[in-house]
Amino acid sequence: MQASTMAAADSTKMEGFWSNWKCQVMELLYWRNLKQSGFVFGSLLLLLFSLTQFSVVSVVAYLALAALSATISFRVYKSVLQAVQKTDEGHPFKAYLEVEMSLSHDQMQKYAENAQYYINSTLKELRRLFLVQDLVDSLKFAVLMWLLTYLGALFNGLTLLIMGEDLFLIPYAQIDQYLALIRTQVNSVVGKIQEKIPGAKRKAE
């Protein structure tokens, strides 16, 4: 009884976590906040293009040098300005240096539980697909992997990620109805396949 209660609580917690995460992603994709979406899109695009030209180590080093150049220049500028004006405003980044950045034990435990739930769910789903618990789902997964072999032959991972940045430019509000139509057609085709293939029907829940 206690185990089932804990499992239900964990499930509710994870549903809330993924719901919140999904809402944040959709806020970005729908450009509800232009500055935030533009910053995320521009930063990711710049990072991906940098990775196509340089190694990961070089990109990280260049980003660190750029950040250090900005902070050191600002620190020196404020120090010179204080010396000229004979003021004592202290360290220009004092407010940020005093911000607490350590993760509490509860936060670490929360993130660990979320990661554990995601990993376990992924492993269970892969087991279900590879051991053909549902024939139609396993066939769809096989077709997807087959299509990915052609996609991988045409593009590398970084190119696909850059192409994925186009998600930020898609007018989702205008294509939601088309996605619904496509989903309906796919479900209809899957239903017909399940009726014709012995053992392909899902068990009634």
Task: Please explain how this structure is put together.
- It is a single chain.
- The chain is elongated and about 85 Å long.
- With 205 residues, it is mainly α.
- The chain has eight helices and no strands.
- α2 (34-53) packs antiparallel against α7 (157-164).
- Helices cover 79% and strands 0% of the residues.
Structural topology:
Layout (H helix, E strand, L loop, with lengths): L1 H28 L4 H20 L2 H30 L8 H4 L7 H26 L4 H20 L2 H8 L7 H25 L9
Helix pairs in contact: 2-7
InterPro entries: Reticulon, RTN1-4
Organism: Cyprinus carpio
GO biological process, one term: neuron differentiation
Which regions are unreliable across 5 or more consecutive residues at pLDDT < 50? none
Taken in chain order, the helices and strands follow as HHHHHHHH
Helix content bin: over 70%
Largest sheet data: none
Shape: elongated
Total strand segments: 0
Based on helices, strands and strand pairing, what is the structural class?
Answer: mainly alpha
The proportion of residues in beta strands is under 5%
**Rg, Å, rounded:** 25 Å
**End-to-end Cα distance:** 22 Å
How would you name the oligomeric state of the polypeptide chains in this document? single chain
GO biological process, one term: neuron differentiation
Keywords: Endoplasmic reticulum, Membrane, Transmembrane, Transmembrane helix
Subcellular location: Endoplasmic reticulum membrane
Transmembrane segments: 39-68, 141-163
